[in-house]
Design brief:
- Two copies of one chain form a homodimer.
- Chain A has 307 residues and is an alpha/beta fold.
- Chain A has one domain: TIM Barrel (Alpha-Beta Barrel).
- In chain A, 46% of the residues lie in helices and 17% in strands.
- In chain A, α10 links the parallel β10 and β11.
- In chain A, α3 runs parallel beside α5.
- The first copy, chain A, is globular and about 60 Å long.
- The interface between A and B is large, with 75 and 75 residues.
Chain lengths: 307, 307
């Protein structure tokens, strides 16, 4: 309950970071793309198979030192149903290798439709007599603009299946303030959304004091990160925007509590494309990803001491 | 440009309504479910194939009298990649039958990730030398909580590929007011989001005066619907919540301008499940859907005169 499984993995690995698997085809080394083009032609299937092979090799190299992966659904959807198969395969494989999986889908809807998203990503569906898990992630990012009707359907899965959600609160992008920073009775919208996270999560709090309803708070806004850490004591943070988007390790330290818990920091491109930055043999892309994952871990744990 | 294609279809059919294809497996008649279970076992593939067969039969019966369908992505995702294949197949088939397709995905993200969603649903991807259209809808529903960074990547597709988007403004659910009705400098969040739609769409206005950036405004809030119609003169409305959620035809009339244009009203369950309500032979489910689509058209056009 309440991200206990994720927190246990963070403590075990001594690493409060998550590797974002957002595999644009450009990120996949050409030798791997070519292998599947040769087999399947210039098709969506070839792209999707190359992406899964890329992810699988990275998962193999990082699963002992990184607690979680965060596949971004958009980069799978862009290859159609073949891409969605690569997402399913990636999630299944990461779980076999013992990793916690956060699907970054930012899904949102209401009532029965939100139940359908819950079943898709965190739950199961019945077909005849069989209960089947379509995607089977451990957690899902969601958008709370529709209010409680969009979140309540997820809470059942949090309670009965030990899953978690991350609600967008203060996002890492430059224009996040257009709406999120606007004041409502003197309180910015992002803090209102944060307060709702505390409310939605109230009866899912686990042994580390965090609920199953987490929040997405960008590394690019360190002051808000610190403010929200104080305001939302039971809300676990998923922190995007480290590295490529400009957030530094010192800034993200504000996401964490006195025990060095309460948050997990994402890096995607820097890890997936480490082989390009290093200029190493592209065949060593997964080992380069591991080296970058270690560098990131050491960077963050220079400021965050996990007790 | 600017929903001209959709508006032309509405004028041609004399029908400002859209059929929501949200095919819960329970909605699919048992004889059809069984057919595919017998072929594929109790699998996600069997569910997905039954759903596509159900959709296809309904599309065949309504394509001459209804301008558009709106498949809800959640009900396809819940059957995994097989379900996403049924979504692709449904979109392709509806387009072959001449219908306008709005994928209801409420997608949202920023920058390159939003570009990936745009490519997935409204655009194309390159694999080797081939340009491929993954889902190929005409329009997509999106969530604007992240601000302009989440919307700008879509505008290119609106301009260069004659596509459209619908931004969630005031949703039909009971809890939509928790955030959307809260005042920012005296203006409710939903109206702020609406104002942004006018801004985002400003250089995509088509011959009927509407931009390619539409808004989702629920039928369950007729006063806000009327208020927003005045406030947002260039924003085309997608109106959910008619029928099952309690919005009536008189209330939705506020979505339309003096020419009977400016909006399209959705109905999902009442049409898909018309055979259950009628108590007719389940094998006639598609004909029952047609009868209900005609009843809805006549109900709405009793209050909305298209000129």
């Amino acid at each position: 309950m309440g991200f206990d499984r994720l927190i246990a993995k963070i403590k075990e690995t001594g690493n409060p970071s998550v590797v974002g698997l957002d595999p644009k085809l450009d990120y996949v080394p050409e030798f791997l793309q070519k292998k599947y083009r040769d087999e399947d032609g210039c098709s969506l299937q070839a792209a999707a198979r190359a992406i899964f092979a890329f992810n699988k090799a990275i998962i193999d190299e990082i699963c002992d030192i990184v607690p979680a992966i965060k596949p971004q659904a958009a980069y799978y959807e862009m290859y159609g149903w073949n891409g969605m198969k690569a997402l399913e395969d990636t999630i299944r494989y990461a779980k076999v290798r013992g990793m916690f999986v956060i699907t970054d889908g930012k899904r949102n809807d209401i009532g029965a439709t939100m139940q359908a998203y819950t079943a898709a990503h965190l739950g199961s569906v019945m077909v005849g007599e069989n209960e089947l898990e379509p995607f089977g992630a451990d957690a899902l990012t969601v958008n709370g603009y529709l209010g409680s009707d969009g979140i309540n359907p997820l809470l059942d899965a949090c309670k009965t299946r030990d899953k978690g959600i991350f609600v967008l609160v203060k996002t890492s992008n430059p224009s996040s303030g257009e709406l999120q920073d606007q004041l409502m009775d003197g309180v910015p919208l992002y803090a209102r959304m944060g307060d709702l996270c505390e409310k939605w999560g109230a009866d899912t709090i686990g042994e580390y004091g965090y609920s199953a309803v987490g929040a997405v708070v960008g590394a690019t806004y360190p002051a808000q990160l610190r403010e929200l850490r104080e305001r939302l004591p039971h809300t676990f943070f998923l922190v995007p925007g480290y590295g490529a988007q400009g957030g530094g390790a010192e800034g993200v330290a504000g996401a964490f509590d006195a025990n060095g818990l309460g948050g997990i920091v994402n890096s995607s491109r820097a890890i997936m494309c480490a082989y390009q930055k290093e200029g190493c043999d592209p065949r060593d892309f997964a080992k380069a990803a591991r080296r970058e994952a270690i560098r990131m871990r050491d960077d963050i744990t220079g400021f965050v001491k996990i007790k």
